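Appendix B, Record 12. Input sequence as logged:
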Amino acid sequence: MRLSSTGFALLGAALIAISFGLARFAFGLFVPPIREELGLSSYVIGIIGSLPLISFLLATAVAPLVTRYLGARYAAVLSGLFGAGGLALISQATGPLMLGIGVFACGICTGLMMPALTAAMQAIVRRSLHGRVSSVMNAGTSIGVIVAVPTVLFMVGAWRPPSVRISVVPSDTLFLQTDQGAKGDTHASLLR
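Logged structural output:
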């Protein structure tokens, strides 16, 4: 089964929603209860809040090499593992170091995901549709934030359970990718 351009765009949007919207930007929505529970100063939470950008930039610098070496699918899987691991660390954080490592890992997730999806898109999608597919994929960030905001509103003050639940989403997506790849369908498994 060959993945259509529309199917690929929707898959890409879902992966971007997870990596950018949930893994990276949702953290900011939970800062007040995290800061209060862990007793973090504004200085410390400011440093931690800058870590996703720093790790995103570092990951973006090496992402083309990682994607070339691992292939698009496994680079996306690695990205998802960083996202799931980072969110799991955030949900279990007992202090600023653990929280910072989790937030840093989530930034790596975002830095690896888009280059992996772009490499897969170039191989799967007709060149004339690249702009449209990229637009749909990039809309995933908004979708992820739209999903995160009601979670924050309904679980005011309880930041750990949503982080645990959100960390399961990249894991589920990774399972679907590797399961499809095991069947030998290179297009559905993001190449490789």
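The radius of gyration is 17 Å.
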